[in-house]
Amino acid sequence: MNKWLNAVFGFSKKEQNGLIVLCILILLVLFIPVIYKAESKDDVADLEDLSFEQHVTKGGGIGRHSEGLAKGDRLRSRSGDNGRFRKHVTKQLFPFNPNHLPAEQWRKLGLTDRQIKVIHNYESKGGSFRRREDLRKIYSISEVSYRELAPYIEIPEVEKSFFTKASPYPDQKAREGKKVIRIIELNSADSAALVEVRGIGPVLASRILQYRNRLGGFREVGQLREVFGIDSVRYGEIVGQLAVDSSALRKIYINRVGFDELKTFPYLRYKQMNAIIQYRKQHGKYVSIKDLTKINILDAEILRKIAPYLIFDD
Fold first, then answer.
1. Class of domain 170-248
2. 239, 208 contact by CB (below 8 A)
3. Most buried residue among 10, 140, 149, 220 by CB atoms closer than 10 A?
4. Beta-carbon contacts of residue 308 (< 8 Å; ≥ 6 apart)
5. For the whole prediction, is pTM greater than 0.70?
């Protein structure tokens, strides 16, 4: 072969040896993925067998079900739902309420630290589990894990209570067995009261209070959609549990307010605040909201939002 290479290509001995080594490396690169896929198929086959066995054992005996769970434990000790290797954990399946379940209890159920972190982040942002199917929405929980945990999920019925200013005897109404909910007044509620609303957690309650302070109070419940973290779905969930008393709004004295007082007001940008103050200096005091329409950068939508917060008296 060396003579043929030398005759055809004119390669030296070193070049011939180099060519042979290069060919060997190319063959290794080509065959390594094939070998890797062949090995990984065994793990996929084991997982498929486990899933099939779990489905079959739903109608079978206790022995086969226990065997399936033991096999699942061995597989999960080798690789978690996210495919990462972790230490062996003895799984214990027991009835549980997923709401605010301690991390140690999740670990006993076979979840990884990453999965537990995702669940706790979901709860810290106001999320909760009202039905067992809600656990399936957690993206780090695989379908196999959900089906295994679902029979053990127990979420107690939440007893609702009702209290409004028009109802001086809420306890009596509750005793009468009427189906009612408690209405929270937004402008007087503290963080503890807000977290009682289904759909509002500690983080979201803090954001609502901060936004309320910047506004000077809510004039309608719909303003909650301006709070970061409240989308149309979340708003629809909480709106029926809230009310607003707009009589206690903190007003802005537009004829003497300074820039430092205006800068925290969320409805105005820097240029708009400056324009309001400069126009007042040049043309005198504002008499009504109509005077503000003369400022070009204040459109009708902005004026509609800020009007309830303005006082035109001296």
1. mainly alpha
2. no
3. 149
4. 219, 246, 249
5. no
